[in-house]
Amino acid sequence: MRRRIPLAVMLCTVATLGYPAPASADTSGGTPVTLSVAGQGTLGITVPTGTTSLGTVASSGSPQQISGQLGDVTVTDLRSGTAGWTVTANAVDFTGPQNISVSAPGSSSYTPGNVTTTGTVTANGTTLSPLYPPGAVVTATGVSGNNTATWNPTISVTIPANALAGTYSSTVTHSVA
After folding, report:
1. What span, in angstroms and rounded, lies between the C-alpha atoms of 108 and 131?
2. Is the pTM of this model over 0.85?
């Protein structure tokens, strides 16, 4: 037997099944946004390139010390970050009519002196004695963004008793990491 469904019930059923209910709309929404800031460059060091004279002393029967300034050393940090850096220095023995050691205790030293900076950085100098093996001479902490540091170190060398007359030479090497 067939059952008859009233037309009103059929229309109501079609109306509710055939049409979706209205969606609720958000009244606000967020979209993630990013940007990038690239560093301008690298970490580098510049040192005096010409020959520096520490001066002249007369030969003596006693050891004597001679000192002089090397010239400006500058670290330029264009990495735009927060990583600190350390400068190490060292020298090789002076050669000439005889060798003058820079590795024996009390034979030599490197004193950074005042360190001037730009940007956000704290740079502290440390005396290196003797000049060999290599050691830290300036350390940077508290870095934020680009910065520079400049100092003019004093190099001191002990001339041994009865040193032979003549010109002696060495090389002071700096590196930054």
Report:
1. 6
2. no
Write the DSSP string, 48-114: --S----------SS-EEEEEE---EEEEE-S-SS--EEEEEEEPPBBSSS-B-SSSTTSEEEE---
CA distance to 51, 83, 174, per residue, from 44 (Å): 21, 14, 11
Tens of pLDDT, residues 110-130: 999 999 999 999 999 999 999
Range of the domain at 174: 40-48+64-159+170-177
* CA neighbor of 86 nearest in space, from 114, 58, 48, 126: 126
- Please write the tens of the pLDDT for every residue from 21-59: 566 778 899 999 988 888 779 999 999 999 999 999 999
Please work out, in degrees rounded to the nearest 5, the angle formed at the alpha carbon of residue 76 by the alpha carbons of 71 and 79.
165
β-pair partners for 141? 122
In a domain, 111, yes or no: yes
C-alpha span between 60 and 49 (Å, rounded) = 31
pLDDT at 16 over 90: no
In percent, the amount of the chain with pLDDT more than 90 equals 80
User: Does 110 fall in a domain?
Assistant: yes
As for how many domains the chain has, the answer is: 1
